[in-house]
Predict the structure.
Amino acid sequence: MNEQQQPQPSPRQDRTAPPAGTGSRPGRRGADWMFGGVYGTVLASALLAALGQEGQAFTPFYDASWVFVTGATAGLAHGYAHHMAAHRKESAWHRWRMLALALWNEWPLIVATLPTVLILLGAGLFDWDSYGVTAVGLGLNTALLFAWGSFVALRVGYRLGSALLIGMADATIGLAIIVANAVIK
């Protein structure tokens, strides 16, 4: 192709931006960091539902530690997987720096487990019963999923009505965990 036959960028495209996927940094686009909030909330809900078993002693401090450790481990594994998927032959220093950045970008996943951890710690401190803690925790996490979904949708440009529907779709995941918890236990 000669110069005249080359595809020309539209006036709205940024001619100085590198093509997608060619950057050397595992950056986050727009609302991608919010993915961790939804993922961490779903993970915490599933763990809360799974940890308490009928007929067993309620161990809220133990459960809180497992929710936090599992969230942190999932964040580290997710960041490491992102790093390895974007791995290129570069200097060792650069690879280590990119790994640290990829791991750091997973902080929302870990933070999203904290409401559940705090509820469990409160249960241990104030001797709350396991049924009430699980019900309140799953209800709170379902409300948080609705909020995450709605907020992310608004942030990326959806109108309010559509954003609320997206929030309801996210909350449906929490409701599915509540139903599964009721059926399985």
Q: What stands out?
A: DSSP finds seven helices and no strands in the chain. Confidence is low (pLDDT under 50) at residues 1-30.
